[in-house]
Amino acid sequence: MSTSPPPRRGRPRDPERLQRVLEAAAAQFTTLGFDRTSIDLVAQCSGVSKMTVYSYFPTKEALFEACISERCNGLFDLFLTTTLDPAWPEAALLQIGRAFLRLMRDDKVVAMHRMMFASAATHPELCQAFYLQGPQTAIAHLADYLAAAAAGGHLRIGDANRAANQFLALFLGAEHVAALLGLALPSPADDEAQLQANVGLFLRAHAAD
């Protein structure tokens, strides 16, 4: 999954400058919302010219989608760069669940969720982009792993996509709702206990015969 449009001809991109643009844009989107965020403001906050921002992202929508992808990259890199052994689903699911829980507790991710709920009626296309690049991509990656574990006889999985959705949904209960409402978050010890309980529940439900 790409975090920006295909590179154009000309000078090579400066990764540090691109990262400044993404960080400034994410801060403005989550603070001001999509409508009140402007390319001019992102350029000013990132210390680059407006034309530089447009050279990376032709539209504000493309910049927003890149911010979503950049925020999710830590979780997706786990699937793309880490060897998750299908023969050891407990270890893999603990690793996946811990990364997903860490993502859901991130202040910027929580703020982005709030913004998307607030924009649902006025910007459904942004919500669709958020869903495709965030939840749907995470489910697809996890489903691939679960299918591999099932193929090796290490889990009993009928529908890998449904099972992946169910596993991740275990982490979106009362604690996540509390985060969205700005209430107190659980301690790291409570989160670890929840992680262990969720993985245990999932493994019991999908234990191989």
Give the SSE map:
Layout: H1 15-32, H2 39-46, H3 50-56, H4 60-81, H5 89-105, H6 107-119, H7 124-151, H8 160-169, H9 174-180, H10 188-205
Helix pairs in contact: 1-2, 1-4, 1-6, 2-3, 4-5, 4-7, 5-10, 7-8
Notable features of this structure?
single chain, mainly alpha, Tetracycline Repressor, domain 2, 10 helices, disordered N terminus
What does this structure look like?
- The chain has 209 residues and is mainly α.
- The chain has a single domain (15-205), classed as Orthogonal Bundle (Tetracycline Repressor, domain 2).
- It is 71% helix and 0% strand.
- The protein has helices at residues 15-32, 39-46, 50-56, 60-81, 89-105, 107-119, 124-151, 160-169, 174-180, 188-205.
- The longest helix is centred in the middle third of the chain and has 28 residues, at 124-151.
- The chain is elongated, with a radius of gyration of 19 Å.
- The chain starts with 14 loop residues before the first helix and ends with a helix.
- Residues 1-12 have low confidence and may be disordered.
Could you provide a short overview of the structure?
The protein is mainly alpha-helical. 71% of the residues lie in helices and 0% in strands.
Order of helices and strands: HHHHHHHHHH
Q: Tell me, what's the shape?
A: elongated
Helical residue percent?
Answer: over 70%
Q: What amount of the residues lies in strands? A: under 5%
Number of beta strands: 0
Query: Could you say which structural class the secondary elements and strand pairing correspond to?
Result: mainly alpha
Provide the CATH superfamily.
Tetracycline Repressor, domain 2
CATH topology, anyone?
Tetracycline Repressor, domain 2
CATH architecture label name: Orthogonal Bundle
